[in-house]
Amino acid sequence: MLPHSRWTRPAFVAAAFAVVALIGAVAAYGRNPHPKDSGSPTPSPATAPAATTAIPSPPIPLQRPEYEWHEFYFTRAIYSSGWGGWGRGGNSWAIDYPKSDHQFVTVLKRLTNLDAFDWDNAVRLDNSMIRRFPFLYALEVGSISLSDAEVEGLRGYLKAGGFLVIDDFWGSREWAQFEYQMGLVFPNNPIIDLDLDHPVFNTFYDIEEILQVPAYGRYWRGGQTHERDGYEPYVKGIEDHDGRLMVIINWNTDLGDAWEWAEQPDYPLEYSTFAFQMGVNMIVYAMSH
User: Fold this and answer.
1) Tens of pLDDT along 126-153?
2) Is residue 282 within 8 Å of 199, Cβ to Cβ?
3) Residue 4 included in any domain
4) N or C of the chain: less Cβ packing under 10 Å?
5) Quick check: 17 and 10 in contact, CB under 8 A?
6) DSSP letter at 201?
7) Which DSSP helix (H) or strand (E) runs through 246?
8) Backbone angles phi and psi of 123, in degrees to 5
9) pLDDT at 253 over 90
10) pLDDT for 83
11) In total, how many domains does the chain have?
12) Element housing 237 (H / E)
């Protein structure tokens, strides 16, 4: 069981600084290909910026282990549409990958006692292997166009108890495309607004305000938090017929970029703090509902 937490901001800030060394070290490592049974294409090594100071190595192996059992895998959805198709290079599903995933798991393991797999885990929507993992993360869905097999795979995954987190898409045009695609998956399950009294906002941390988390590069160039006409952040969702939240939709915000660049001293702590707290809450909700 995970400890129930009501951390104050100072306590979370202290924990955030405690993991900065680990984050910086993780950012410096390239990663090996996925296990053969992951259902994902073989990626090339990551090209993350090297640490600028000597930082202790994180407590994870340099060589990716063989398949092993853990309570939690941070699983990223691979979909065939968007930019260049299935492959990793220059494709929508792989934005911020794998650095964002690695750094989030590093912080997750420091903030909870969850037994999480230390590496990334990307799986295709049309691969039956996806049902092994109750948590699924998908981003840049503003141009997504699901194949019939992907629609069936995602529908089956969610009906079987899976939980999908949507992140990093902006504005009315991208919303319209995403809404249409989700209508193919669940034509009779409407997208609803999630109020702050929904359990997902207080299952581990108490979230009292929805922040718009900006992309690091965009914020660094001028302090702008929005993209296109996505001026206001929203958290929406799709429930099954029993009221279980199956899909949580973070629109007009970019949690993954905050995870990826949390170690940068010029990225505001308020955004990375919110992004990590939301991430932990979503995982605890997914693992307990």
Assistant:
1) 999 999 999 999 999 999 999 999 999 9
2) no
3) no
4) N
5) no
6) G
7) strand 245-251
8) -135, 140
9) yes
10) 52
11) 1
12) strand 234-239
Whether residue 216 lies inside any domain: the answer is yes
Between CA 53 and CA 214 the distance in angstroms is 26
Cα–Cα distance measured from residue 276 to residue 261, given in angstroms and rounded to the nearest whole number: 12
Asked whether residue 81 is assigned to any structural domain, the reply reads yes
Per-residue pLDDT, 91: 85
Q: What CATH number does the domain containing 20 carry?
A: 3.40.50.12140
* pLDDT tens per residue across span 5-23: 444 444 444 455 444 443 4
Q: 267-287 burial, b if ≥16 CB within 10 A, otherwise e? A: bbeebbbbbbbbbbbbbbbbe
Domain membership of residue 3 (yes or no) is no
pLDDT band at 222 (very low <50, low <70, confident <90, very high): confident
221 in Cβ contact with 209 (< 8 Å): no
Backbone angles phi, psi at 42, to 5 degrees: -75, 115
Please give the Cα distance from 169 to 7 (Å, whole number): 29
Is pTM, for the whole model, over 0.85? no
Take residue 174 and report the two structure tokens written for it. 């991208």
Q: How far, rounded to the nearest angstrom, does the alpha carbon of residue 214 sit from its chain's CA centroid?
A: 15
Return the SS3 of 137.
strand
Look up residue 171 and give its amino acid: G
Instruction: State the Cα angle at 260 between 7 and 15, rounded to 5°.
Output: 25
Range of the domain at 268: 9-288
Residue 93 pLDDT > 50: yes
Best CA proximity match to 101, nearest among 29, 171, 50: 29
Return phi, psi of residue 185, to 5°. -75, -50
Provide the pLDDT for residue 68: 80
Distance CA 135, CA 131 (A): 9
